[in-house]
Amino acid sequence: xxxxxxxxxxxxxxxxxxxxxxxxxxxxxxxxxxxxxxxxxxxxxxxxxxxxxxxxxxxxxxxxxxxxxxxxxxxxxxxxxxxxxxxxxxxxxxxxxxxxxxxxxxxxxxxxxxxxxxxxxxxxxxxxxxxxxxxxxxxxxxxxxxxxxxxxxxxxxxxxxxxxxxxxxxxxxxxxxxxxxxxxxxxxxxxxxxxxxxxxxxxxxxxxxxxxxxxxxxxxxxxxxxxxxxxxxxxxxxxxxxxxxxxxxxxxxxxxxxxxxxxxxxxx
Length: 268
Prior knowledge:
By secondary structure, the protein is an alpha+beta fold.
């Protein structure tokens, strides 16, 4: 990654400078951490770090927010959004200067300064509508294919918990959706027009790629599985066990061998 103003290379394991335009080399990418966040920047991405915001001129990024209280401004060439909540999202600069946002994990809220907001769940994609300063209709995309083909996901080393979380949400989406359409999402080339490109006309039956009717829903039983990549564990305190008559802290055989206090006194 080059620092254009001084023509310097940012060393690994170093802090990113603020108020300086940074550029990721082609066929490359970088990963960086901030308090409560993890960011990945794709090839040929240009961006600038601010105190509580991130300016992205070209390219794409993956953002992982680890705290539900997190809030950050993401500013593109023609639009600025506030992103809040806990989850993971892909954000890409479009040819018209707007942003394309895809939910991957959790639930992130994207909003304009005038209060217009939208929540993105896993698999949901929206464009910023520059003409109306709002969002396009949601389009649901196939997560399994996205996880395999996106450089920001498959091109980096992922922890086992992150891999498990992605696999879990992809499987949940596949099981929840019964109908797909033979189309894929394109680019936003004008202020309010967004492409949905049909695939080969030789395929007559519906096939997975992008669709607009069915939507992924957060699992009711344990939504923490998505973020943890495993089932959540609940630890019982000693007081809660003693107050619950249905929980026997020791086997019955052990209780039978234990003498009563009166026997101890007589033994003395």
